[in-house]
Write a structure and sequence with these properties.
254 residues; mainly alpha; two-stranded antiparallel sheet; 10 helices; 61% helix
Length: 254
C-alpha cells in the first residue's frame, strides 16, 4: 500500500505528496479565493476583475420580458396581461441600475421605456382596481430612471386615489405636482393632505407645502413639464435584436 510507511522510500514519497497538496491548496486560496466565501475572489480575480456578481444576464432577462410581451400583444384589451408586461419590463430595467454610478445601463433604460409604454396602455384599459404596487414602481422609475416628473405625478395620482384617507400619499402628490410645475394639481393635493391631517399638525404641513411650492416656482420646468410621457410601442429588447409589438393597440397617447 502507498501509505505503508515502513519503507524509507515510501515515507519520502508520502511527504512529497503532502507537500505538493499543501502548495496546491495554498495557491488556490491565494490565487483563486477558494474557500473565502461571499464571492470575494483571490489574487487572480483581483487582477482580472473576476469574481464580480454585479453582472446580469441581459439575454435571459430580455427573453423573459419578450415572453410576457407576446402574451400582452396577443390580448390588447386584457389589463392583467399588460399589467404583467409592465411589471416584468420594469423589474428587468431596474436590474440595469448600477449601484456604483447610480445610472442605468442602455439595456436598463430600454426596458424602462418598455415598462412606461406598457403602463400607459394598461391605464388606457381603465382597470377597475389599478395595480398599486406597479404604480409605485412606475413612479420611482419616472423620477429616477426616465426623468419624467409629469408621468410620475400621474402614477402618484393612481396611488393617492386608491388611498383616499392617507394624507401622506397626497403630500407626495402635491410635492411632485409642484416640482412638475402643475401648480393647480399641487394645490388640490395639498388641500386634501391638510384636510386629512390632524388639526394640530395642519399649520406645520400647510407651511411646509407652501415652501415647497415657492421653491418649485423658482426652478425652470423640465423638458417633460408639459405632461408628455413615453408612448413608444412596447418592444422586446434583446442584446442583439429588437422585435416590435405588431399591434396598433400597443400605442397609447396619454
Amino acid at each position: 500500500m502507498l501509505f505503508d510507511l515502513r519503507g524509507r522510500g515510501r515515507r519520502r514519497t508520502v511527504q512529497l505528496i503532502y507537500l505538493f497538496l499543501a502548495v496546491l491548496m495554498g495557491g488556490g486560496l491565494v490565487l483563486f479565493g477558494i474557500g473565502t466565501g461571499a464571492n470575494q475572489g483571490g489574487l487572480l480575480n483581483a487582477i482580472t476583475g473576476g469574481g464580480s456578481s454585479s453582472s446580469i444576464d441581459t439575454t435571459s432577462l430580455a427573453k423573459s420580458v419578450a415572453s410576457v410581451q407576446a402574451q400582452a400583444v396577443a390580448a390588447p384589451h386584457d389589463a392583467t396581461a399588460w399589467d404583467s408586461y409592465a411589471s416584468s419590463a420594469a423589474t428587468a430595467g431596474q436590474e440595469g441600475l448600477s449601484a456604483t454610478t447610480g445610472k442605468y445601463s442602455p439595456f436598463g433604460l430600454g426596458e424602462l421605456q418598455q415598462a412606461a409604454a406598457a403602463w400607459q396602455h394598461y391605464l388606457s384599459l381603465n382597470p377597475p382596481a389599478p395595480d398599486i404596487q406597479l404604480a409605485q414602481q412606475m413612479e420611482a422609475i419616472y423620477q429616477s430612471g426616465l426623468n419624467n416628473l409629469p408621468a410620475a405625478v400621474n402614477a402618484q395620482e393612481v396611488i393617492a386615489t386608491a388611498s383616499p384617507t392617507d394624507p401622506s400619499q397626497f403630500i407626495i402628490l402635491a410635492r411632485l405636482a409642484y416640482a412638475a410645475h402643475q401648480t393647480h394639481k399641487g394645490d388640490l393635493a395639498a388641500a386634501k393632505a391638510v384636510a386629512l391631517t390632524a388639526p394640530a399638525g395642519r399649520p406645520t404641513l400647510r407651511a411646509e407645502l407652501a415652501a415647497t411650492k415657492k421653491q418649485a416656482t423658482k426652478k425652470k420646468p423640465s423638458s417633460t413639464a408639459g405632461g408628455t410621457t413615453t408612448t413608444t410601442t412596447p418592444t422586446a429588447t434583446s442584446t442583439k435584436t429588437t422585435t416590435k409589438a405588431a399591434t396598433p393597440h400597443a400605442k397609447h397617447k396619454p
